[in-house]
Amino acid sequence: MRSLLIASVAALALSACASQSAAPASSSAAKAPQCWNGDLGAFQAVGTQATISGVTVSCKTTSDGKNAQWMGAGH
């Protein structure tokens, strides 16, 4: 019975510690959209140009303005 009580207290203590988390960092400015460049392994800013399989592409914002994607010169 005593070991059950100790186990219950230990489980309660561990769950209390696990439920505590740091407050999320507040940011008043939203991050600017970026395009992922797999060749470089990094995100690149809107307006950046790259060549993929011989085609020149540019990182442009999507119509909603929240994201960005690589688009060919004709778009």
Give your account of this protein's structure.
The chain is α+β, with helices and mostly antiparallel strands and 75 residues long. The protein has 1 helix and 5 strands. The chain has one helix at 2-19, and strands at residues 34-37, 42-45, 49-52, 55-61, 68-72. The protein has a 3-stranded antiparallel sheet, with no helix packed on it.
Average pLDDT number: 76
Uncertain ranges: 14-19
Strand content: 25-35%
| Helical residues, percent | 10-25%
Overall body shape: elongated
Number of helices: 1
Structure classification: alpha+beta
Distance between the termini: 73 Å
Trace the largest sheet across and list its strands: 3-4-5
Describe the largest sheet.
Answer: 3 strands, antiparallel
H/E element order = HEEEEE
Rg, alpha carbons: 24 Å
Strand segment count: 5
Question: Layout of helices and strands, plus pairs?
Answer:
Layout: H1 2-19, E1 34-37, E2 42-45, E3 49-52, E4 55-61, E5 68-72
Antiparallel strand pairs: 1-2, 3-4, 4-5
